[in-house]
Automatic annotation (TrEMBL):
The chain crosses the membrane at residues 25-47, 53-70, 77-96, 125-146, 258-276. InterPro entries: ABC/ECF_trnsptr_transmembrane. Its main location: membrane. This is Energy-coupling factor transport system permease protein. Pfam families: CbiQ. It is found in: Membrane. It is a multi-pass membrane protein. It comes from the Bacteria. Keywords: Membrane, Transmembrane, Transmembrane helix.
Length: 286
């Protein structure tokens, strides 16, 4: 028989995307240094198509994820969702413009002759590969930042770089609430299954959709009620009265933080240097 305490324990052991405490060197970095590094690297990767740089950043991202101690199974749901979106993006690019890479790189190397305009060229495959490793570069860094940075420290870092503390605090509340929402969903799901509602792989796809809707809709209304309670409590405490505020989780920058920021600046400068070397955003091996 399921008790409330037992259900809560099972829900807390589920795959929840949120802050994961740890002792890695990434956890020890200040939130502001990780945020600045993530922004600089993301700008670099998104603004260039130099395969050498993007591939190096993607390998570095995977190594950082490995060193952080975060398990892949802990973020499996997010990775599956992003993976599906990535496949749809690549397929859409090919369907709407199957020779887009040919126009970019100025050559046409046919690998397989398809039907009509749908041919397989080395240039198009190379372009799609670049799009793929762009995701491989930024997604692990984004997940790593969210799972190794406490929400309060994230809010403090946003305020340190000039974001209004009201916006920073709203972001902090959202990050805190996502794991709670996932945990509450898991608890309700276990309760429903204990009462005989089949939501596992044994049920049909339609049955699982209906069963999850029975959970999601009440969860949305309870979330709205909780938001109203939090906003009322903040108003009663006169939140937002002053122009500035202090942060309990404020963490001064250390040598490792300055090195992290310097690495991000170096990657960004290298991106601009490659613009001049390649004569544009694209690295052309053809």
């Amino acid at each position: 028989m399921f008790t409330k305490k037992g259900i809560s324990r099972m829900a807390s052991n589920s795959k929840v995307l949120g802050y994961q405490p740890g002792q890695s060197f990434i956890h020890q970095l200040s939130g502001v240094s990780k945020l600045i590094f993530f922004i600089l690297v993301s700008v670099s990767v998104m603004s260039t198509y130099d395969t050498r740089l993007i591939l190096a950043v993607s390998l570095g991202s995977l190594l950082l994820f490995q060193f952080s101690g975060i398990k892949w199974r802990q973020v499996r749901f997010v990775l599956i969702f992003i993976g599906i979106f990535l496949v749809l993006n690549l397929v859409t690019i090919y369907l709407f413009s199957p020779e887009y890479g040919v126009g970019i790189y100025g050559s046409r190397t046919v690998i397989a002759q398809g039907w009509g305009r749908f041919t397989v060229t080395a240039e198009q495959l190379f372009y799609l590969f670049n799009v793929f490793i762009k995701y491989l570069s930024t997604v692990p860094l984004a997940i790593l930042f969210l799972t190794t940075t406490h929400p309060s420290q994230f809010a403090s870092s946003l305020n340190q770089i000039g974001v209004s503390y009201k916006i920073a605090y709203a972001v902090s509340l959202a990050l805190r609430y996502v794991p709670d929402l996932q945990e509450e969903y898991g608890m309700i799901k276990k309760s429903q299954e204990a009462r005989g509602l089949e939501l596992s792989q044994k049920a049909t796809f339609v049955q699982r959709i209906k069963g999850n809707l029975q959970i999601v809709l009440p969860l949305i209304f309870s979330s709205l009620s909780r938001i109203e309670t939090i906003s009322t409590a903040m108003e009663l405490r006169r939140f937002g009265q002053h122009q500035k505020r202090t942060w309990y989780s404020y963490q001064p920058l250390k040598r490792s933080d300055y090195l992290t920021i310097a690495l991000g600046v170096t990657i960004l400068c290298l991106t601009f240097l490659l613009f001049f070397t390649n004569g544009g955003r694209f690295f052309n091996p053809f």
